[in-house]
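Whiteboard transcription, Tuesday session. T.W. wrote the C-alpha coordinates on the left side:
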Protein backbone atom coordinates (compact mmCIF):
# COMPACT_ATOMS: atom_id res chain seq x y z
CA UNK A 1 0.00 0.00 0.00
CA UNK A 2 1.38 3.44 -0.90
CA UNK A 3 1.83 6.06 1.80
CA UNK A 4 2.12 8.84 -0.79
CA UNK A 5 0.36 11.99 0.26
CA UNK A 6 0.06 10.78 3.87
CA UNK A 7 -0.31 13.62 6.39
CA UNK A 8 1.80 13.71 9.56
CA UNK A 9 1.63 16.22 12.41
CA UNK A 10 4.24 17.80 14.67
CA UNK A 11 6.59 15.24 16.29
CA UNK A 12 5.77 12.51 13.72
CA UNK A 13 6.28 15.05 10.96
CA UNK A 14 9.61 16.16 12.38
CA UNK A 15 10.88 12.59 12.67
CA UNK A 16 9.84 11.80 9.10
CA UNK A 17 11.58 14.92 7.77
CA UNK A 18 14.75 14.10 9.67
CA UNK A 19 14.85 10.51 8.52
CA UNK A 20 14.24 11.47 4.85
CA UNK A 21 17.03 14.04 5.02
CA UNK A 22 19.47 11.66 6.67
CA UNK A 23 18.64 9.04 4.06
CA UNK A 24 19.17 11.55 1.21
CA UNK A 25 22.50 12.55 2.71
CA UNK A 26 23.69 8.96 3.10
CA UNK A 27 22.65 8.11 -0.46
CA UNK A 28 24.09 11.33 -1.87
CA UNK A 29 20.71 12.45 -3.26
CA UNK A 30 20.15 16.14 -3.93
CA UNK A 31 17.70 18.04 -1.72
CA UNK A 32 16.11 21.41 -2.65
CA UNK A 33 13.98 23.62 -0.48
CA UNK A 34 11.53 25.95 -2.23
CA UNK A 35 10.19 28.88 -0.26
CA UNK A 36 9.32 32.58 -0.49
CA UNK A 37 10.79 35.56 1.39
CA UNK A 38 8.20 35.49 4.22
CA UNK A 39 8.53 31.80 4.93
CA UNK A 40 12.31 32.13 4.63
CA UNK A 41 12.19 34.69 7.46
CA UNK A 42 9.47 33.23 9.68
CA UNK A 43 9.32 29.47 9.05
CA UNK A 44 12.71 28.24 7.87
CA UNK A 45 14.50 29.19 11.14
CA UNK A 46 12.30 26.70 13.01
CA UNK A 47 13.62 23.83 10.88
CA UNK A 48 17.01 25.09 9.78
CA UNK A 49 19.15 23.60 12.55
CA UNK A 50 17.73 20.14 11.98
CA UNK A 51 18.02 20.57 8.20
CA UNK A 52 21.69 21.53 8.43
CA UNK A 53 22.48 18.63 10.75
CA UNK A 54 20.60 15.97 8.82
CA UNK A 55 21.48 17.13 5.30
CA UNK A 56 24.24 19.78 5.22
CA UNK A 57 24.20 20.11 1.41
CA UNK A 58 20.62 21.19 0.64
CA UNK A 59 19.98 23.93 -1.91
CA UNK A 60 17.66 26.88 -1.39
CA UNK A 61 15.29 28.04 -4.15
CA UNK A 62 13.61 31.28 -3.15
CA UNK A 63 10.83 32.81 -5.22
CA UNK A 64 8.81 35.98 -4.58
CA UNK A 65 5.63 35.54 -2.54
CA UNK A 66 2.11 36.04 -3.86
CA UNK A 67 -0.46 34.68 -6.29
CA UNK A 68 0.82 36.89 -9.13
CA UNK A 69 4.03 34.80 -9.10
CA UNK A 70 2.20 31.45 -9.40
CA UNK A 71 2.89 31.32 -13.11
CA UNK A 72 4.97 29.73 -15.83
CA UNK A 73 7.82 32.27 -15.56
CA UNK A 74 8.36 31.40 -11.87
CA UNK A 75 8.08 27.69 -12.62
CA UNK A 76 10.83 28.13 -15.20
CA UNK A 77 13.05 29.68 -12.49
CA UNK A 78 12.56 26.56 -10.34
CA UNK A 79 13.37 24.26 -13.26
CA UNK A 80 16.47 26.37 -14.06
CA UNK A 81 17.76 26.05 -10.47
CA UNK A 82 17.18 22.29 -10.49
CA UNK A 83 18.97 22.02 -13.82
CA UNK A 84 21.91 24.24 -12.71
CA UNK A 85 22.48 21.94 -9.74
CA UNK A 86 22.11 18.83 -11.90
CA UNK A 87 19.15 17.49 -9.99
CA UNK A 88 18.45 13.95 -11.12
CA UNK A 89 15.19 12.01 -11.04
CA UNK A 90 16.05 10.95 -7.50
CA UNK A 91 16.18 14.54 -6.18
CA UNK A 92 13.80 15.73 -3.47
CA UNK A 93 12.02 19.11 -3.60
CA UNK A 94 10.68 20.34 -0.24
CA UNK A 95 7.97 22.99 -0.55
CA UNK A 96 7.88 25.18 2.56
CA UNK A 97 5.12 27.77 2.33
CA UNK A 98 1.49 28.54 1.69
CA UNK A 99 -0.71 27.23 -1.09
CA UNK A 100 1.17 29.20 -3.73
CA UNK A 101 4.41 27.39 -2.85
CA UNK A 102 2.83 23.91 -2.53
CA UNK A 103 0.89 24.39 -5.81
CA UNK A 104 3.83 25.67 -7.88
CA UNK A 105 6.41 23.43 -6.19
CA UNK A 106 4.21 20.38 -6.68
CA UNK A 107 3.68 21.35 -10.31
CA UNK A 108 7.39 21.97 -10.97
CA UNK A 109 8.28 18.63 -9.32
CA UNK A 110 5.63 16.72 -11.28
CA UNK A 111 7.04 17.81 -14.66
CA UNK A 112 10.79 18.04 -13.99
CA UNK A 113 12.35 14.96 -15.63
CA UNK A 114 8.78 13.54 -15.64
CA UNK A 115 8.53 13.69 -11.88
CA UNK A 116 10.81 13.93 -8.85
CA UNK A 117 9.99 13.29 -5.20
CA UNK A 118 8.43 16.15 -3.36
CA UNK A 119 7.38 16.99 0.20
CA UNK A 120 4.89 19.66 1.30
CA UNK A 121 5.36 21.62 4.52
CA UNK A 122 2.36 23.98 4.52
CA UNK A 123 2.71 27.16 6.56
CA UNK A 124 -0.72 28.85 6.20
CA UNK A 125 -4.07 27.75 7.57
CA UNK A 126 -5.35 27.49 4.01
CA UNK A 127 -2.50 25.26 2.89
CA UNK A 128 -2.64 23.06 6.03
CA UNK A 129 -6.38 22.48 5.69
CA UNK A 130 -6.59 22.29 1.92
CA UNK A 131 -4.00 23.29 -0.67
CA UNK A 132 -1.24 20.89 0.40
CA UNK A 133 -3.58 17.89 0.70
CA UNK A 134 -4.82 15.65 -2.10
CA UNK A 135 -2.20 16.09 -4.83
CA UNK A 136 -3.60 18.89 -7.00
CA UNK A 137 -0.84 21.12 -8.35
CA UNK A 138 -1.15 24.13 -10.57
CA UNK A 139 -0.24 27.54 -11.87
CA UNK A 140 -2.34 30.42 -13.19
CA UNK A 141 -2.27 31.20 -16.89
CA UNK A 142 -3.66 34.19 -18.80
CA UNK A 143 -5.38 35.30 -15.57
CA UNK A 144 -7.24 32.00 -15.32
CA UNK A 145 -6.78 30.35 -11.93
CA UNK A 146 -4.98 27.00 -11.84
CA UNK A 147 -5.43 26.69 -15.60
CA UNK A 148 -2.35 24.50 -16.01
CA UNK A 149 -1.64 21.72 -13.53
CA UNK A 150 -1.31 18.07 -12.68
CA UNK A 151 -2.41 15.55 -10.08
CA UNK A 152 0.79 14.62 -8.24
CA UNK A 153 1.00 13.42 -4.67
CA UNK A 154 3.94 14.47 -2.48
CA UNK A 155 5.75 11.78 -0.51
CA UNK A 156 4.25 13.25 2.67
CA UNK A 157 2.54 16.38 3.93
CA UNK A 158 4.14 17.56 7.18
CA UNK A 159 2.04 19.87 9.34
CA UNK A 160 3.38 22.09 12.11
CA UNK A 161 0.49 24.28 13.37
CA UNK A 162 3.03 26.46 15.24
CA UNK A 163 3.92 28.08 11.92
CA UNK A 164 0.57 29.86 12.12
CA UNK A 165 1.83 32.07 14.96
CA UNK A 166 3.62 34.34 12.47
CA UNK A 167 0.80 34.45 9.92
CA UNK A 168 -1.03 37.77 9.69
CA UNK A 169 -4.71 38.07 10.59
CA UNK A 170 -5.99 38.52 7.04
CA UNK A 171 -4.25 35.30 5.95
CA UNK A 172 -5.77 33.40 8.89
CA UNK A 173 -9.20 34.67 7.86
CA UNK A 174 -8.52 33.59 4.29
CA UNK A 175 -7.92 30.07 5.66
CA UNK A 176 -11.36 30.23 7.25
CA UNK A 177 -12.83 30.44 3.75
CA UNK A 178 -11.78 26.83 3.10
CA UNK A 179 -12.72 25.70 6.63
CA UNK A 180 -16.24 27.05 5.99
CA UNK A 181 -16.37 25.09 2.76
CA UNK A 182 -15.73 21.85 4.71
CA UNK A 183 -18.40 22.88 7.21
CA UNK A 184 -21.04 23.21 4.48
CA UNK A 185 -20.15 20.17 2.39
CA UNK A 186 -19.52 17.68 5.13
CA UNK A 187 -18.98 18.80 8.72
CA UNK A 188 -21.60 21.22 10.08
CA UNK A 189 -19.90 20.96 13.54
CA UNK A 190 -17.14 23.19 12.20
CA UNK A 191 -19.73 25.98 11.98
CA UNK A 192 -19.65 26.25 15.76
CA UNK A 193 -16.02 27.33 15.51
CA UNK A 194 -16.93 29.85 12.83
CA UNK A 195 -19.76 31.32 14.90
CA UNK A 196 -17.40 31.69 17.84
CA UNK A 197 -15.85 35.07 17.12
CA UNK A 198 -12.47 34.45 18.75
CA UNK A 199 -9.54 32.97 16.88
CA UNK A 200 -8.48 30.28 19.31
CA UNK A 201 -4.95 28.97 18.63
CA UNK A 202 -5.40 26.08 21.06
CA UNK A 203 -8.23 24.64 18.89
CA UNK A 204 -6.35 24.84 15.63
CA UNK A 205 -4.72 21.44 15.58
CA UNK A 206 -8.10 19.72 16.09
CA UNK A 207 -9.75 21.88 13.45
CA UNK A 208 -6.95 21.29 10.93
CA UNK A 209 -7.19 17.53 11.63
CA UNK A 210 -10.96 17.58 10.90
CA UNK A 211 -10.38 19.33 7.56
CA UNK A 212 -7.50 17.01 6.63
CA UNK A 213 -9.67 13.99 7.46
CA UNK A 214 -12.47 15.17 5.16
CA UNK A 215 -10.11 16.05 2.33
CA UNK A 216 -8.06 12.84 2.48
CA UNK A 217 -11.14 10.62 2.69
CA UNK A 218 -12.74 12.31 -0.34
CA UNK A 219 -9.56 12.48 -2.44
CA UNK A 220 -8.55 8.89 -1.71
CA UNK A 221 -11.94 7.74 -3.09
CA UNK A 222 -11.63 9.94 -6.18
CA UNK A 223 -7.99 11.03 -6.68
CA UNK A 224 -8.44 12.58 -10.15
CA UNK A 225 -11.79 14.31 -9.65
CA UNK A 226 -14.10 12.25 -11.80
CA UNK A 227 -16.96 12.42 -9.30
CA UNK A 228 -17.13 12.83 -5.52
CA UNK A 229 -13.98 15.00 -5.29
CA UNK A 230 -15.88 17.76 -7.07
CA UNK A 231 -17.74 18.55 -3.81
CA UNK A 232 -14.50 20.13 -2.56
CA UNK A 233 -15.10 22.87 -5.11
CA UNK A 234 -18.14 24.27 -3.31
CA UNK A 235 -17.83 28.07 -3.43
CA UNK A 236 -14.99 27.82 -5.94
CA UNK A 237 -16.72 28.16 -9.33
CA UNK A 238 -17.77 31.69 -8.47
CA UNK A 239 -14.86 32.18 -6.03
CA UNK A 240 -12.31 31.50 -8.78
CA UNK A 241 -14.11 33.93 -11.10
CA UNK A 242 -13.92 36.64 -8.39
CA UNK A 243 -10.27 35.81 -7.74
CA UNK A 244 -9.26 35.81 -11.42
CA UNK A 245 -11.06 39.12 -12.00
CA UNK A 246 -9.35 40.65 -8.96
CA UNK A 247 -5.96 39.29 -10.09
CA UNK A 248 -6.36 40.96 -13.49
CA UNK A 249 -7.41 44.27 -11.88
CA UNK A 250 -4.54 44.05 -9.31
CA UNK A 251 -7.25 44.20 -6.60
CA UNK A 252 -6.10 42.46 -3.40
CA UNK A 253 -8.46 39.51 -2.89
CA UNK A 254 -7.06 36.41 -1.18
CA UNK A 255 -8.08 32.92 -2.28
CA UNK A 256 -10.07 32.13 0.88
CA UNK A 257 -11.75 35.54 0.77
CA UNK A 258 -12.87 34.83 -2.79
CA UNK A 259 -14.11 31.36 -1.77
CA UNK A 260 -16.05 32.81 1.18
CA UNK A 261 -17.85 35.23 -1.19
CA UNK A 262 -18.33 32.35 -3.67
CA UNK A 263 -19.95 30.23 -0.92
CA UNK A 264 -22.59 32.89 -0.31
CA UNK A 265 -23.43 33.23 -4.01
CA UNK A 266 -23.51 29.44 -4.50
CA UNK A 267 -25.79 29.15 -1.43
CA UNK A 268 -28.17 31.56 -3.15
CA UNK A 269 -28.12 29.34 -6.25
CA UNK A 270 -28.60 26.33 -3.94
CA UNK A 271 -31.74 27.98 -2.56
CA UNK A 272 -33.26 28.27 -6.03
CA UNK A 273 -32.08 24.93 -7.42
CA UNK A 274 -31.94 22.63 -4.37
CA UNK A 275 -34.33 24.25 -1.88
CA UNK A 276 -31.60 25.27 0.62
CA UNK A 277 -33.43 27.11 3.40
CA UNK A 278 -32.87 30.86 3.76
CA UNK A 279 -32.24 30.31 7.50
CA UNK A 280 -28.85 28.77 6.57
CA UNK A 281 -28.14 31.64 4.20
CA UNK A 282 -28.84 34.25 6.90
CA UNK A 283 -26.64 32.30 9.35
CA UNK A 284 -23.85 32.32 6.75
CA UNK A 285 -24.24 36.05 6.10
CA UNK A 286 -23.66 36.62 9.84
CA UNK A 287 -20.51 34.48 9.74
CA UNK A 288 -19.34 36.08 6.49
CA UNK A 289 -19.79 39.64 7.69
CA UNK A 290 -18.18 38.85 11.06
CA UNK A 291 -15.02 37.38 9.59
CA UNK A 292 -14.61 38.88 6.15
CA UNK A 293 -14.62 42.28 4.54
CA UNK A 294 -17.47 41.66 2.07
CA UNK A 295 -16.26 41.52 -1.53
CA UNK A 296 -17.95 44.13 -3.71
CA UNK A 297 -17.89 44.17 -7.48
CA UNK A 298 -19.43 46.36 -10.13
CA UNK A 299 -22.52 44.66 -11.58
CA UNK A 300 -21.29 45.59 -15.06
CA UNK A 301 -18.58 42.92 -14.75
CA UNK A 302 -21.14 40.09 -14.42
CA UNK A 303 -20.69 39.05 -18.10
CA UNK A 304 -16.90 38.79 -17.52
CA UNK A 305 -17.49 36.73 -14.38
CA UNK A 306 -19.79 34.38 -16.31
CA UNK A 307 -17.14 34.13 -19.04
CA UNK A 308 -14.59 33.08 -16.43
CA UNK A 309 -16.96 30.48 -14.99
CA UNK A 310 -17.35 29.05 -18.48
CA UNK A 311 -13.60 28.25 -18.33
CA UNK A 312 -14.07 26.27 -15.11
CA UNK A 313 -12.59 22.78 -15.31
CA UNK A 314 -15.81 21.20 -13.95
CA UNK A 315 -17.83 22.20 -17.01
CA UNK A 316 -18.57 19.85 -19.85
CA UNK A 317 -19.91 21.16 -23.14
CA UNK A 318 -21.62 24.55 -22.80
CA UNK A 319 -23.27 24.11 -19.42
CA UNK A 320 -22.23 25.83 -16.20
CA UNK A 321 -21.84 23.10 -13.59
CA UNK A 322 -21.94 23.77 -9.86
CA UNK A 323 -21.55 22.04 -6.54
CA UNK A 324 -24.69 22.96 -4.61
CA UNK A 325 -25.98 22.04 -1.16
CA UNK A 326 -29.51 21.11 -0.12
CA UNK A 327 -28.54 21.58 3.55
CA UNK A 328 -25.22 21.84 5.44
CA UNK A 329 -23.45 18.48 5.07
CA UNK A 330 -25.34 17.49 1.90
CA UNK A 331 -23.46 18.44 -1.24
CA UNK A 332 -24.41 17.60 -4.83
CA UNK A 333 -21.99 17.89 -7.73
CA UNK A 334 -22.40 18.35 -11.49
CA UNK A 335 -25.59 20.36 -11.11
CA UNK A 336 -26.27 22.27 -14.35
CA UNK A 337 -27.42 25.82 -13.72
CA UNK A 338 -28.78 28.22 -16.38
CA UNK A 339 -26.66 31.35 -16.88
CA UNK A 340 -29.67 33.59 -15.98
CA UNK A 341 -29.91 31.93 -12.55
CA UNK A 342 -26.20 32.58 -11.92
CA UNK A 343 -26.60 36.23 -12.96
CA UNK A 344 -29.62 36.61 -10.65
CA UNK A 345 -27.68 35.16 -7.71
CA UNK A 346 -24.75 37.52 -8.30
CA UNK A 347 -27.17 40.47 -8.17
CA UNK A 348 -28.85 39.06 -5.05
CA UNK A 349 -25.40 38.64 -3.41
CA UNK A 350 -24.71 42.36 -3.97
CA UNK A 351 -28.06 43.33 -2.39
CA UNK A 352 -27.55 41.08 0.64
CA UNK A 353 -24.06 42.21 1.56
CA UNK A 354 -24.64 45.94 1.25
N1 LIG B 1 -4.01 22.51 -4.69
C1 LIG B 1 -5.12 22.67 -4.04
O1 LIG B 1 -5.87 21.71 -3.81
C2 LIG B 1 -5.50 24.03 -3.56
C3 LIG B 1 -6.59 24.19 -2.69
C4 LIG B 1 -6.87 25.46 -2.20
C5 LIG B 1 -6.08 26.54 -2.56
N2 LIG B 1 -5.04 26.36 -3.41
C6 LIG B 1 -4.19 27.48 -3.81
O2 LIG B 1 -3.55 28.01 -2.66
C7 LIG B 1 -3.15 29.36 -2.93
C8 LIG B 1 -3.40 30.23 -1.71
O3 LIG B 1 -2.61 29.76 -0.66
P1 LIG B 1 -2.37 30.61 0.65
O4 LIG B 1 -3.63 31.20 1.10
O5 LIG B 1 -1.61 29.73 1.57
O6 LIG B 1 -1.51 31.85 0.13
P2 LIG B 1 0.07 32.11 -0.06
O7 LIG B 1 0.78 30.88 -0.38
O8 LIG B 1 0.13 33.24 -1.01
O9 LIG B 1 0.54 32.60 1.39
C9 LIG B 1 0.00 33.77 1.89
C10 LIG B 1 1.06 34.78 2.36
O10 LIG B 1 1.51 34.41 3.64
C11 LIG B 1 2.93 34.30 3.67
N3 LIG B 1 3.20 33.24 4.63
C12 LIG B 1 2.99 31.92 4.46
N4 LIG B 1 3.19 31.26 5.61
C13 LIG B 1 3.55 32.19 6.54
C14 LIG B 1 3.85 32.13 7.92
N5 LIG B 1 3.74 30.97 8.61
N6 LIG B 1 4.19 33.26 8.55
C15 LIG B 1 4.23 34.45 7.89
N7 LIG B 1 3.92 34.57 6.58
C16 LIG B 1 3.59 33.44 5.91
C17 LIG B 1 3.32 34.01 2.25
O11 LIG B 1 4.63 34.41 1.99
C18 LIG B 1 2.30 34.84 1.49
O12 LIG B 1 2.73 36.19 1.44
C19 LIG B 1 -3.94 29.81 -4.15
O13 LIG B 1 -3.08 29.90 -5.24
C20 LIG B 1 -4.93 28.68 -4.36
O14 LIG B 1 -5.27 28.50 -5.71
C21 LIG B 1 -4.74 25.13 -3.89
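and on the right, the sequence the group agreed on:
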Amino acid sequence: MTTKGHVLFEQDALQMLESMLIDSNQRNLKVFLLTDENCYTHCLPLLEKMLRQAQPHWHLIQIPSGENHKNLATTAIIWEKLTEQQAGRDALLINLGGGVITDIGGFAASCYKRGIRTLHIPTTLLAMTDAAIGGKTGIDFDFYKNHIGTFYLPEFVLIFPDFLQSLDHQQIISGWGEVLKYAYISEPNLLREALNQKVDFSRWKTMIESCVKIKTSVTSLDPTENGLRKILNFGHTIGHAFESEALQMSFPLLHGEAVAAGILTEMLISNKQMGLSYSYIYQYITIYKTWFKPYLFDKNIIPQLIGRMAQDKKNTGNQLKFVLISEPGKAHYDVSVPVQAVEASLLEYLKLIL
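Someone added at the bottom: The first helix runs from residue 10 to 26.
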